[in-house]
Amino acid sequence: MAHFIKNDFCVCCGVCVPECPHRAISDFNAFGTVEYPKISAERCDDCGACAAICPTQAICVMGGCPMT
Fold first, then answer.
1. Would you report the helix, strand and coil content of the chain in percent, each value rounded to 5?
2. Mean pLDDT of successive 10-residue segments in the chain (68 residues)?
3. Which residue among 11, 25, 31, 53 is least packed, with the fewest CB closer than 10 Å?
4. How many structural domains compose the chain?
């Protein structure tokens, strides 16, 4: 199962984007707008690098963490 980002916890700091070795996390500020990063289920291999670095614990495995 792919990881996902809980938008309620994400502060858009961007530390997860370069941490992903598979480039599965979208660049979330390409047009100067505030959007949350997204993780591609096709590219994510569940290595957990993004979740380990997230300062707000906003990244979880689908079905493996509470939504709140």
1. 15, 10, 75
2. 85 91 79 75 92 93 64
3. 31
4. 1
